[in-house]
Specification:
By secondary structure, this protein is mainly alpha-helical. It is built from 22 helices and 5 strands.
């Protein structure tokens, strides 16, 4: 990597950090604007870095489709740059976009692939991140024990790695999952008060540590959850005392949905204390703030509380009007569910397109566009049963002669150009039933199904001659390239591994026999 590339990557990383910082401070609109401007001026891995941060901003703003598209493009750019870790992170972004859209099942499926990639690479931090996201999605699906197990494993891994920022976020997710699991009776009281008390202490500790670390949004979320956890313990006055100071702080940090839900929580607390005028005020504030695009369940709860407050304060007309809003929203909720299902379907279609592309890229050599060894393994596994029943199957394994000299004398760019030319020549000798493979380095392979041995020998000799006679000076002045070829027939061996070994042995016989020749028999 040269100095110019280093500088470009540093600028891209700084732009991505700037976007994340703006999101953390609650300036989400600014984060999106700056992220879009930065991404538009970049390409390759630098653009992928900014898109990853921009996706988080989109998700925070509730723009799920934009989040998915940003994550998809980032993953493709990382993949093209050979950055497997970055591609895996971006796939995690795809999963998060699905989760935010309510499709937790699809998110878990994607995240399990991300986890497998991280485990294969022995990347502890990325394993932990995948487990954290799986835990959140599982908890939201009601699979509490599985969710808690995943989140606890993620927390343990992050503690071992000593990654403080990720640790705080994972603790937030774990405590949220414990809150979801907290059993309540018909009156909304905790059936296990000791468990609720332990959660209170954990929320308080997290809030204090987040504040000390300058993680303001995380601190506010933890303090809000601490106040909410007071309610199942019937500690209504304490909850009010903690919730009210949070309102201006939420608004100051762009957390309007949190402020709206805090008004609803305050309305519930005042109602429980019989302070119905105060309850009416907070429910009305919640309704006003939730009117524009908030989930119907939250708005229904606000209108229901407002209706009850009006009734208790002797205003039946206002109570009835609020109740009509509840009924209207309940009817609308079913339409919203249908729209959400449609949005999830659209995201799944986009995910299917992406998954198909990843699967295709995973079986292609990025330099030549030929199949890679993974694709060859699948091809042989598919065709070998037919070979065992007598259908012809032959391999032509070829190696470019003295290819190191090409790189040494003409440079690696010319060497890459030669490999691409060879790929084109191999394709020209490939029938629809065959598979052209870059086997590794300067080795190539043509797998032939249904062609008899004489036909395969003819193709092998023709391919060798075509390579030798190719217009190589067009690629580089005074360049000449030849290849040695070994042929193996499935009828000569017992399994696919032995077939590859036989082709390799005959290839080396061609090399040691003088090169630029085909060996078809021992």
């Amino acid at each position: 990597m040269n100095d110019e590339t280093d500088t470009s990557e540093a600028r891209s990383a700084a732009a991505a950090d700037r976007v994340r910082s703006l999101v953390e401070r609650g300036a989400v609109a600014d984060a999106i604007r700056e992220g879009e401007e930065a991404a538009a001026a970049l390409s390759g891995r630098g653009r992928a870095l900014v898109l990853g941060a921009l996706g988080v901003a989109y998700g925070t703003a509730g723009r799920d489709k934009d989040y998915l598209r940003a994550a998809v493009e980032a993953s493709e750019l990382f993949q093209a740059a050979g950055d497997t870790a970055g591609s895996g992170d971006s796939r995690g972004g795809v999963a998060n976009a699905l989760r935010l859209a309510g499709d937790n099942a699809a998110a878990i499926e994607m995240l399990e692939r991300v986890e497998a990639m991280a485990r294969e690479a022995s990347d502890t931090m990325r394993i932990a991140r995948a487990l954290r996201s799986i835990g959140v999605a599982s908890s939201q699906l009601g699979r509490h024990q599985h969710g808690l197990a995943c989140l606890q494993e993620a927390l343990d891994l992050m503690q071992q790695a000593g990654y403080a920022d990720e640790l705080l976020t994972t603790r937030l997710s774990l405590l949220n999952a414990h809150n979801r699991q907290l059993a309540l009776d018909a009156e909304g009281r905790a059936t296990d008060r000791a468990q609720a008390e332990r959660l209170l202490e954990a929320w308080r500790e997290l809030a204090d540590e987040a504040a000390a670390a300058g993680r303001v949004r995380l601190e506010l979320m933890a303090r809000g959850n601490h106040a909410i956890t007071l309610q199942p313990l019937s500690r209504w006055r304490e909850a009010i005392a903690e919730l009210e100071p949070l309102l201006p702080r939420y608004l100051a940090h762009g957390m309007k949905p949190n402020a709206a839900l805090t008004h609803v929580e305050l309305g519930r607390c005042h109602a429980r204390l019989g302070a119905h005028e105060a309850a009416r005020h907070h429910y009305a504030c919640g309704v006003e703030m939730l009117r524009d695009g908030s989930p119907h369940n939250d708005l229904i709860e606000a209108w229901s509380g407002l209706s009850d407050a009006h009734e208790r304060l002797g205003d039946p007309a206002a109570a009835l009007a609020a109740l009509r809003e509840v009924r209207r929203l309940e009817a609308k909720r079913s339409d919203e569910a249908a729209r959400q299902a449609l949005a999830q379907r659209e995201l799944r279609i986009e995910l299917a397109r992406l998954t198909s592309r990843w699967a295709r890229e995973a079986t292609l050599d990025p330099l030549t566009g030929l199949a890679n060894r993974r694709a060859l393994e699948h091809w042989l596994a598919t065709h070998w049963p037919e070979a065992e029943r007598g259908r012809p199957l032959l391999l032509l394994l070829l190696d470019l002669d003295h290819f190191k000299r090409v790189n040494d004398d003409f440079g690696h760019d010319t060497g890459d150009a030669v490999l691409r030319e060879i790929a084109g020549l191999l394709r020209s000798h490939c029938r629809s039933a065959d598979l052209a493979v870059r086997y590794g380095g300067e080795e190539f392979l043509l797998a032939m199904a249904g062609a008899d041995r004489p036909a395969a020998e003819t193709v092998a000799e023709r391919l060798r001659a075509t390579i030798a006679a190719h217009d190589w000076p067009r690629v580089a002045d005074r360049l000449a390239v030849t290849a040695s070829v070994g042929l193996a027939d499935a009828a000569e061996v017992l399994d696919a591994a032995a077939l590859l070994t036989l082709a390799d042995r005959r290839l080396y016989a061609a090399k040691y026999g003088g090169r630029n020749r085909v060996v078809v028999r021992d």
